[in-house]
Amino acid sequence: MKKLTHINQKGDAQLVDITDKAISHRKATAEGSIQLNKETLKLIQNNMIKKGDVLNTARIAGIQAAKKTWELIPLCHSISLTKIDINFIINKKNNTITCQSSCECFAQTGLEMEALSAVSISLLTIYDMVKAVDRTMVISNIHLVEKSGGRSGLYKREIKDKPKKGVKAKK
Amino acid sequence: MKKLTHINQKGDAQLVDITDKAISHRKATAEGSIQLNKETLKLIQNNMIKKGDVLNTARIAGIQAAKKTWELIPLCHSISLTKIDINFIINKKNNTITCQSSCECFAQTGLEMEALSAVSISLLTIYDMVKAVDRTMVISNIHLVEKSGGRSGLYKREIKDKPKKGVKAKK
Amino acid sequence: MKKLTHINQKGDAQLVDITDKAISHRKATAEGSIQLNKETLKLIQNNMIKKGDVLNTARIAGIQAAKKTWELIPLCHSISLTKIDINFIINKKNNTITCQSSCECFAQTGLEMEALSAVSISLLTIYDMVKAVDRTMVISNIHLVEKSGGRSGLYKREIKDKPKKGVKAKK
Amino acid sequence: MKKLTHINQKGDAQLVDITDKAISHRKATAEGSIQLNKETLKLIQNNMIKKGDVLNTARIAGIQAAKKTWELIPLCHSISLTKIDINFIINKKNNTITCQSSCECFAQTGLEMEALSAVSISLLTIYDMVKAVDRTMVISNIHLVEKSGGRSGLYKREIKDKPKKGVKAKK
Amino acid sequence: MKKLTHINQKGDAQLVDITDKAISHRKATAEGSIQLNKETLKLIQNNMIKKGDVLNTARIAGIQAAKKTWELIPLCHSISLTKIDINFIINKKNNTITCQSSCECFAQTGLEMEALSAVSISLLTIYDMVKAVDRTMVISNIHLVEKSGGRSGLYKREIKDKPKKGVKAKK
Amino acid sequence: MKKLTHINQKGDAQLVDITDKAISHRKATAEGSIQLNKETLKLIQNNMIKKGDVLNTARIAGIQAAKKTWELIPLCHSISLTKIDINFIINKKNNTITCQSSCECFAQTGLEMEALSAVSISLLTIYDMVKAVDRTMVISNIHLVEKSGGRSGLYKREIKDKPKKGVKAKK
Q: Could you tell me which CATH class the domain C24-168 is placed in?
């Protein structure tokens, strides 16, 4: 049976010792979605087309969350990211906004938590900005899409989601 | 059509002016789940029964996230919480852990974002602590369950989720 | 001769004791400007008209700075703001962007530092976002415009700046 | 026409991708001033000569701001500084204190924002500590003096300010 | 047997629910000491007499730590302090510096952790600033001296420490 | 007489310039204790045996404090730790819990402050969690045990503490 690396032999929480690991170029992409009312999505889009503020604010929040993941997730190492890219895909058919974040760094440990934190906080920020008009929003499907670098090499999520037919958020 | 309160007439982002709102006793409960492999859930449970570290660490992370929601979500007001309660429900049937957070405060504005942030960061912390053995985890169904206080009064989520048959995490 | 309230009788730094002061409704407005190249201003405006990202990002940064002023300025008390409003005025004649912030709260102490921090960080964020095309920018004229509340009552800056003929940033 | 590097092709805010840039030894020096009343300057100097607390507190605040620039300016990368030096020059003739900060690091991106943040927060801290006796202070002339390292090499501000005849703050 | 209030019936960590407690005026005083080499103490004093920087920097660090205690100690509530006073007493006989902090607030919960955090971080800052010349320093005797306010009323530490014959740090 | 490296020639506080120092593998171990009532220690142990929450929460707080030492101690450089290990030793004879932390990194400067901060905040967290049942706790004997790396090489505390006869905290 595999072992939980964050728990040592005594069962105590620990910051995994990465002292002996090599620095490598690492990438991680994560994704998640927020389900909205049809009307709410329109409001965001109208605003977005004109000024983009809801999504830009969510993007800024996500970028900042990625940078401070080590502060939010107790057992994450502090790493310096060289790239944080956050995109939103609007799917009018099922009234969702999908947030996708891609991060890169040179480090002794992976950065999937940074990509996942960026997605989570971006989606929470959308929630916050439209919650006055829509209380039934649901944030779902936050997962790792792909990662590379380090000893374990490339990982791509096998279980394919159905192809997203949403249009890229145009401005 | 309703208006986005976080966006002013010019479409700029703004911290909603709550100067004229009365202080009231407010509550919010939020919920979300993480889907795991059967084997991963067992590992957490074994560890939990003995020492509870995975879930306790996730709980601590969630409490701290609730307290710093104003720092994570750009347009949230800074409020002082008088209660943050975080619980985990393990559902062996579908291999999920549900995180539920209940927060209270006396404030001029609601605290659903605090409850939602607590849930999100708690689940991300579980993810982080077991990601070495399970890369296919998915965080889902983060939503507001109930809130009260303020002008809008009591809100209870209408669309009932199917009754959770999970057992309360025992220790 | 007046005394420095932040320095006690021994000359040590101190957090001014506000225990005996009454809570009152307080307001503060501050202002400052950034001088840019003509070409840089055009770039921001073109971007702004289409998407508003430079100014929106600066606005978000300013709002967040106001909320964490107590963390940035060592001897500021931690207060909860009920309003943070940040506006930008573009003056094409002299190629400047003026940032104006208005904050409100109910507190035992004033909030001019919150308004001033919001202005400073907003302007630094504009600087950061356009520094690749313009290294000669200068941030100037950061000052308190007006404040009210508390024992000292209303203060309005006497020395009038020349009337700004800039146009309000339209989007 | 040059492009705004912080805005991608779609006009979205982004953390500039520095993955492919080489690490180089980088330096940046920034400067700014605060205009005070004659009487206020004397108070600071008297205190300074005896205990130096106003300027020392401002220096500490500036050093801490430089270290957390990545948290204050949304699109700044997180970098580790190897040197932060903050000096104050008192000019009795025109009643100003000029703050100068010099920072160094080994990084894939420049650090002018760190130097500028240090100056801004140092000056705001002076403002905070003497605002009880002087409400007409103005912070001005915050600019980059010099920077080196990276592809763009050495930059020195061409437009010379008039020689400062102020005396170095002696203690 | 008494119960641990931070641990609920199931043994989980919790933020104690203070929703039903009344707001009261609260005070707390804490104390702790650092043992130094004779030579180190002289260095600090010489510097202190001239410029006071070691102790002023320690004082600033302590004040800032008190304000962010809720961030450092996971189960502390976030409270706004109305007074933070930090003093140092130098005892040449046994080569120690004693740090004493007094805090006040109006809150539903006590603030002894704020007073204790201020002392701890102040002493660690002294340690940091002189560690290049003295590696054998020991920080000791960090304890609560007195607290008042709330249901439990006044508490004064019964076990008297021997009278401190140190001189108040003069500047 | 040795010089205080954190104070420059003028006596100003400074972030020590480490630009020219080589990166080396560095380690530091620090230690400190908390004195409790017999009854309090039993409560922690009972809880610990069953769920370990008090000590696990203290451990998490210590790990997070180590990561943000640069934010707590004004003149500490920001460094990325590759290992943070925190252990507790319970000594039933004298009713103390000793906290020991070991940190590692590759950096241009030492990390003893990170190890010492981890110990201090871990002990304060224990204090916070049991203070409702015990107000006479004292935190003592916080010191550096050992450090290595950098120009100064290995340091081991010479003055041996009496051998600790405490049992390792078993769970």
A: alpha beta
